Every structure is written in C-alpha cells, then in structure tokens.
Amino acid sequence: MPDFNVVDYFFWLLLIIAFVMEVWALIDSLTVPEGAFTAAGKWRKKLWMIVLIVAAVVGAAYAVAPAALGANPIGLLIGILPVAAFLAAAVYLADVRPAVAPYKKKGGRGGSRQGPYGPW
Q: What distance separates the 2 farthest-apart alpha carbons in the chain?
C-alpha cells in the first residue's frame, strides 16, 4: 500500500461514499416498476438502469484504485468520470426517486388493504 497521509485517506473515503451512493441509486431503481418512470415523466427505466450501472462500475473502479494501483485519491476524485458518476446517482436520488415513489409497491406480506383511492 502506498504512503498515504490523512488528506489522502479523507479523499479516498469520499470516493467510497460516492460509490455507496451510486450502488444505493442502482438498487433503488431495481425496485421501481417500469411504468412508474413513464407515469412520472422521467426517462424510461432501461435508460436509467444503463446510466446507473455505468455509474456504479465507474465508482467501483475509482474506489478500489487507490488500494489496487496505489493511485493518488485526490487526483482520482477531481477527474471527470467519478464526478459524472456521482452526479448521475445524485440526480436519480434527488429528482427521479421522489417522482416515482408513489408508484412503488408498498407493503410486505399480506398486502396493505389499500385501493387506488385509499383503504378498503
């Protein structure tokens, strides 16, 4: 492992946090029905899945690079790819996720006894 100082570890932690956020956005998008994206006026689910998968792969590569390659985390963090991957996940979580939330399947076992206009 290369000789990192405290600042390098801090920026490496930022890369790991960004990767976790990208994975969270990807997993959340898997739980949304396909029609919810269209009903909310957003991109189709397939397009969001492609964007978020690419973001998660880029995030994973940049989060692992300091340990695997000995790369400087500060130099990695200011590159265009990790910033673009983070922004894609941030847009999904801040804009798309709240818009499709009403269309997500809620409840677990046994159902929730909810109709389209309220409980029944």
A: 64
pLDDT in tens, 50-103: 999 999 999 999 899 887 777 888 788 778 999 999 999 999 999 999 999 998
Rounded to whole angstroms, the Cα distance separating 62 from 113 reads: 45
Side chain identity, residue 109: R
Q: How far apart are CA 79 and CA 65, in angstroms?
A: 13
Mean pLDDT of the chain: 87
Distance CA 22, CA 20 (A): 5
What are the b/e assignments for 44-81, b being 16+ CB within 10 Å?
A: ebeebeebbebbbebbbbbbebbeeeeeebeebbeeee
pTM for the full model?
Answer: 0.80
Give me the helix-helix angle, 45-68 and 80-91, nearest 10°.
Answer: 140
